[in-house]
Structures are given as structure tokens and as C-alpha cells.
Amino acid sequence: MRHVDEETLAMIALGEDTGSADDLAHLAQCGECAHELTQLRHLVSVGKELTADDVPSPPPPVVWDRISAELGLAGSPAQPDLGNPPDIPREDASTSEPPVTSPMTTPTAAPAPPADTSATVHDLAARRRPRIAGWLAVAASAGVIAGSLGGAWWASNRQATPDVTVLAQAALEPLPGWEATGVAQVEQVAQDASTRVVVVQVTGELGTDGYREVWLLAADLSGMVSLGLLTGSSGEFVLPDGLDLTRYSVVDVSEEPFDGDAAHSGNSIVRGPLGA
Amino acid sequence: MSVVQRAADPEVDAIGLSFRDGDETALAEAYRRWSPMIYRVALRSLGTAADAEDVTQLVFVAAWRGRSGFDPSRAALPGWLIGITRNTVADAHERRTRDRKVADAATALATQPRPQHDMGRVVDHVLLADEIERLGEPPRTLLRLAFYEDLTHDAIAERTGIPLGTVKSHIRRSLLRLRTRLEVDDATR
After folding, report:
1. B168 vs A11: CB contact, 8 Å cut-off?
2. B160 domain-assigned
3. What integer best gives the mean pLDDT of chain A?
4. Could you list the residue range(s) of the whole structural domain that residue B159 is in?
5. Most confident of A47-56, A116-125, B168-177
6. Is the pLDDT of residue B105 over 90?
7. A251 - beta bridge partners?
């Protein structure tokens, strides 16, 4: 007798009423298939219990510092690609000391980093519109993001439910030359665990030139994703499903000139790392 | 289902070999890849960020100092690290119990946040959540719709506009992938 095919087993494990009479008869007497179904059912039962609290998240940067110090690592390897980038002002950082200069924090710097040809900074150097467009095309072909999980859909659902979980938040600190602060938080609605929204609220002087744009940056500035335009002092931005917040872990609001250049201007107003 | 499988992932194997041979960049890479998982397991088990940070530190320090005891033919590095995490978390629970006996047991019990003692379950949850995060799109969204919204394959196809046959094969592949990454191993519990 033929074994039950894996697709049917998967559907049964997920609780669907499926499988032919032959399949069910086979399952009743085939230890191999029954074992496989038991494993899949266990997997499904654990999967259905998962919450946002189960998703791995990087420990604070100080943990690596402590490990490195305790082990006396010879080369003192740089902080692995986690946590706060060095140029982000920390709450306890001295404000009299200018942060490490980078193309992202120097208002007068060219928009793109110098090493345009370097593979390691390719994400940042590249005009990101084509990349985003490519990503959106994938999402749209899946028919998921642009349609059912879009911003309007989320907003209407959010009104109906108080079950909003804050997955992460960031205190936004001003970059040199700016006098604004803010907060950002990543929210998830209980009814739709797959949609995450970043809510940004900024207070203070945001400038009147050009327009404001909200970004998520990689902590080491090796890449960035534009979330959209900020009009006024607050906004909500649906995160592209699949966006890895452990990689793009820093919220940034920039002032963008009307120069037709889709890349980050390099002129950030406020910025802060997402944390629990 | 509780241990990272002896994965046939050459990249992971290479990190494991370099780690055992004392290459500090392999330590940094292992930390980059697996500290989020270890930190989250500790956080879920112990309930406080401070304890989870301590456990993460202890695990990587112990792993590095004991790296000669790592046998790549028996386990992949992340599985070995999770094993150390289990022991370290268990030690932390024991220490707490001792401390609690010294302090007033009644008040301590009443005020402490209730951590999750079932390590196997915590590890399963975190590893599975990690694997789901690593699924690409659209498989991840399809699986989430099946898991969290209890949608049937038909309903998922209708919701997403993805053909039913494609939905079925994505979900089947995702489940099988998740299952191979999380393997039954009661011996380590």
C-alpha cells in the first residue's frame, strides 16, 4: 500500500479535514506514516503557541563587551553586527563630544559613502529604490503585502482591537545641529501576528526645508530601508513583512531635499536603536 | 523536539571547526548568529533581562574556555551552545531556589515574576520562532496564516491570491524544514 503523501499529512496535521478513505485506512495501520503525522502535529501545536516573546532578539551590546573583556580576546574583535552602532548617541553619552563621523551623521557629507565600489557597503551606496522596488515586486506577486495587509487595512483593524503588543521601542535622540527628540515603537496586533507597524512620534524642531523621511538602518550602517514620509510630527508605517528587525534595528528620521535623489540625504534629525 | 539538529549546513560546520580551533573571529561569528537565540531562551526561562545577560555571557565564556570539548561530529555548534545554555539556566534556577530559602520564601514566591521552568518547551518555542523568521517570503506569511489565523489552505489561497497548489507545497516544505531543524532528542532533556 502506498504511503500517504506529505502534502496530505501536512494538511491533516494542521487540522484540515482531508485525505481519502484509503489514506485514512493506511494511516491506521502504517507506523511510519502515523509517526510522521505525530511529529508534524507536535510541530503544529508548538507553532500555534508561539508569541512575539519567543522570537530571538540580540542581547544588549554590553554583553559582548563583557565576554570580550573576560576572555581577554587578543584582537578584541569588533562588536559583532548587533546592537547599537558606534555613532548613535547613547542616553548616557556625553553630549559635548561629537559622535564618530560617518556619512550618515555629517549633514554636509555627500549622500553616498565614499567606497561606492566596495561590496561591503553596496547596500548603502546603491540607490535603494530599485532594491525596494524589487522586494515589493516579490511581495506583490505573493499578493500579500500590497493587498490584505496594507496600511489602511491595519489601521481599521487596530481601531477595533485594544490588543496591541509593543515588540520594541526606541528613544530618538537628536543628531548634532538638531533639537528634536522622539519615540518610536514597533507594534503588533494580536489578531494579525504577521503585521508589524512602526509608530513614530517626534517633538521639537524638525526644520522646514524639504521633507521628512523615516528609515530603518542596519546598526553598522551597511544598509537601510525607507519606511515612508513623515508629515507633521507623527506617523505610522507598516513594516514590510519579512524585514529583519535584528538587522535593521535603528530608527532614523532624515531631512530630505527636493533634489530627486531617492537616497538618504545624510542629514538625520533624530535617531535611536530599537530595544525591548 | 528540543535540539538543533546536526545540521548539514557547511557554513555552520565551518564556524564550528574554527571555533574549536580557537579562532576568535569564529567566536564573534557564533555570537552574532546565536546569541539572540540564547539570550531569548534565558530571558523566557528566567524572566529578567539582567539574568538573561548573565547567562548569555556565561554560556559564551564557558563555550570558549571549553571549546576543546566540542566535538563537531556529534553536534553542530548551535546545538552544543543550547546544551550549555540549558545547564547554565538550570544552575541559575538552583541558585534562585537557594537564595529564596535564605530569604523569606513566602514573600519571594508571592512577588517574583513567574519564570518558565520547562526548559524543553522554552527551547522549542525559541528555536521554532527563529526558524520561522528565517523562512523566506511568501512561505513565512503562508505558514503564519495557517498557524495564527487557523486558515485552511483554501482560505489562504483565497486571501493571498496564490494558487492552491503553490500554497500547499510551500506549507508542506516549510513544515518539513522546521521539523528537520528541530529534532526529537529526549536524551538531552
Report:
1. yes
2. yes
3. 69
4. 119-188
5. B168-177
6. no
7. A216, A272
Average the pLDDT over A90-103 and give the result: 35
Note whether B21 and B79 are same-domain residues: yes
Does residue B108 fall inside a structural domain? no
| B145-154 confidence digits (pLDDT tens) | 888 888 889 9
Q: What is the CA radius of gyration of chain B?
A: 19
Tell whether A241 is within 8 A of chain B (Cβ).
Answer: yes
What is the b/e burial string over B41-57, where b = at least 16 CB atoms within 10 angstroms of the residue's CB? bbbbbbeeeebbbbbbb
Interface test with B, best of A144, A145, A188 (most B CBs within 10 A): A144
CATH number at residue B144: 1.10.10.10
Same domain, B15 and B94: yes
A6 to B143: CB separation less than 8 angstroms, yes or no = no
Residue B156 grid cell = 489562504
Residues B142, B71: one domain? Answer: no
pTM of the model: 0.53
Say which of A50, A58, A66 has its CB closest to residue B125.
Answer: A50
Distance between CA B143 and CA B170 in Å, rounded? 8
CA–CA dist B66, A174 (Å, integer): 44
Cα nearest neighbour of A247 on chain B: B32
**Ranges A6-10, A103-107, B20-24, most confident:** B20-24
